[in-house]
Amino acid sequence: MENNLHNNCVPAGRNMKRIYCITGVILLMSAFAEGQAVSYKVGEKVTYAIQYAFITAGSGTLELSSDTLNGKEVWHSKLAARTTGMAETLFKVLDIYESFIDPSTELPVKSIRNIHEGRYKKYNIVLFDHKTRADSSILTSDLTGKHIAPPRIHDILSCFYFFRNHILPVDSNLKKGELTTIITWFCDELYPIRLKYLGTDEVKTRVGKIRCYKFNPVTETGRLFKTEEDVTFWFSADKNFLPVKIRFDIFVGAFTCEIMSYKGLVYPLETIEK
Question: What are the pLDDT digits (tens) for 135-144?
Answer without folding.
Answer: 999 999 999 9
